[in-house]
Amino acid sequence: MKVSINKLLLTSFLCFFTLTALAKTQEEVLKDFSAWDKKTNNLFIAFDQNTSFEDILISSSTGTLTKEGQNLILDTYENGKLIQRAFTDKKIIKIFDPEGNLITTSDWQTWQQAQTNKALFDFGNYAQVLKDHKIKKFTQEEKNYQLVLEGQNENDTYELTFLLDEKSFPIQITLQSQGVKTTTNLSEIKINQPKVKESKK
Predict the structure, then answer these.
(1) Structural domains of the chain sorted by starting position, each given as residue range(s) with its CATH number in brackets
(2) Does this model's pTM top 0.85?
(3) What is the DSSP code (8-state) at residue 171?
(4) Which residues of 7-31 are buried (b: 16+ CB within 10 A; e: fewer)?
(5) pLDDT tens-digit profile of 24-43?
């Protein structure tokens, strides 16, 4: 029994030591978070996004986002089938149907402001996101970190929450304002993957 207790104590100590070693300060996490602006040359993520009002689900969508430099490609799916593709260079945005026919063209900033969770499109712009917000709360959750931001102005009525992994990269983004909550879960994250060279025929 004494040996078992000693093993249990040793295991608990090692777990505590591991979590402590992994922990980063708020300053370190914010620095690493902003560093992705320059470190992210290309990116691919899959996402699912749910929007609710007073805890009642009102919309749900899935998709993928591909970033190459300043260019973004956003594919939206329904029941596993592509229903829309959007391309932007962060100046204008062009939206196409599944067959590749142009539906509409819009100013990027105007379009982004109308999105329920515009932070999804802020990859490569995190330093500005931090500059535009105040930090309301910062906590560690096991190997992840939760960063809760609020607007700089008193009239801002929203909270923007990032759940960051151990490398300070977002794996969940939540926007909450006046009873409306949009949560975007990120998966299949691939950062700075080497380009596949086309074989010459």
Answers:
(1) 24-191 (2.50.20.10)
(2) no
(3) E
(4) eeeeeeeeeeeeeeeeebeeeebbe
(5) 899 999 999 999 988 988 99
